[in-house]
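Quick note —
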Amino acid sequence: MKRNKKLFFIKFCLFLIFIFILFSNYSFSATPKLVKTLTDAFEDIEDWILKLATPAAAVAVGVGLFMKKFSFGDEEKMRTAKKVIRGSLFAYGFVLAINLVLSAIESLIA
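Predicted structure written out below.
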């Protein structure tokens, strides 16, 4: 039984190698349709995320500034406001850096 499985595996691997060698010289398109579609999709996603993140970051920073302004000397509220401001700025920085991530993914796909 094990011998049959090994024999089948060897034949299957040889068949796949033969198929890859046979069709390795053919190029069907200079820019494949799937890669172009994925590239366009990544660009649309990036634009969409930036359009949503910019007002959200502005609102978060504004809320943090108002929290700090109206804390009236309460140290806990001031710390919370600083965390909100710092967190929103870091998150917006990561959203702006998404272009680097998407270009890395795009270079792996293309």
